[in-house]
């Protein structure tokens, strides 16, 4: 376990300078990194500090958060197919962002889009908790999440359908594909409190998630308050996913695939999977963001497209392996 965590942490640290130095400008690695600490405030220093550094930081923060929430959701629901979007937070955040674009709020206010997305995520969480009720179990939570997610997706389609011009529709579609391009340190400071708060909450659930592997009845006999555990899970997941979607758009498959890959390496114990998945998620999003800049540097290839192209076949392979193992 310690060796695995060391390897994952080393990979995150190794990818960070690579993420800082990959870009359209033909500048060497040493020169790029030196410009980051240069006090002359030349063009390269500004590019490193205002464009590449926020992008690299957001890849670690958002990727780590999505991996952590995926592991927590799969541990609580005891289902490897569970993912953070199951409770409808990402769809609600996307709806808030789409409304901000369609009404012009995103263009008139600097942080109008991410703030609207956060408001959408909070509204989605409130509705999910209200629908699930204080005593509802995991099945009620899933059904409430699916209902809110479907409603938010329908309303998003309606807003897209009623877009006043094709430019607004294009902006909405491209935003929903997810990206870390053109983000600034403002976006880092916006998402960081939500990510840290959500991560701190989810890390406190490790004992409860381990107890749930024995079943809900056994966990309750061990003194676990399942209602409190579910509330903390939803709040922690909503904070991370809501903040991530508000800043980077919809980025899928990280919370679904990363815990699934790492689960056999930690012995299937949910508490051990939390930290490993956070590091694994950071690695996957860093690699995906680097790939976006290398594969088609002249085109605006979206991050969500790359994670889906990598994650979907990988997940199909994992399903095939699982089915073969059960045969």
3D architecture notes:
This protein has 327 residues and is mainly alpha-helical. The protein has helices spanning 2-21, 29-36, 43-77, 89-103, 105-108, 112-132, 138-161, 166-176, 185-203, 206-212, 216-221, 226-248, 254-262, 270-295, 303-326. Helix 9 (185-203) packs antiparallel against helix 12. The chain is globular, with a radius of gyration of 20 Å. The model has no long low-confidence stretch (mean pLDDT 84).
| Count of alpha/pi helices | 15
Name the average pLDDT. 84
Distance between the termini: 30 Å
Strand content: under 5%
Estimated structural class: mainly alpha
Radius of gyration using CA atoms only = 20 Å
What's the total count of β strands? 0
Helix residue percentage:
over 70%
Largest sheet: number of strands, sense, barrel closure? none
What is the overall silhouette?
globular
Flag low-confidence runs: none
**What is the H/E string?**
HHHHHHHHHHHHHHH
Task: Sum this structure up briefly.
The chain has 327 residues and is mostly helical.
Summarize this structure as a short list of keywords or feature phrases.
15 helices, 327 residues, 0% strand
Write the layout of secondary structure elements.
Blueprint: H1 2-21, H2 29-36, H3 43-77, H4 89-103, H5 105-108, H6 112-132, H7 138-161, H8 166-176, H9 185-203, H10 206-212, H11 216-221, H12 226-248, H13 254-262, H14 270-295, H15 303-326
Helix pairs in contact: 1-3, 1-14, 2-3, 3-9, 3-12, 3-13, 3-14, 4-6, 4-7, 4-8, 4-12, 6-7, 6-12, 9-12, 10-14, 13-14, 13-15
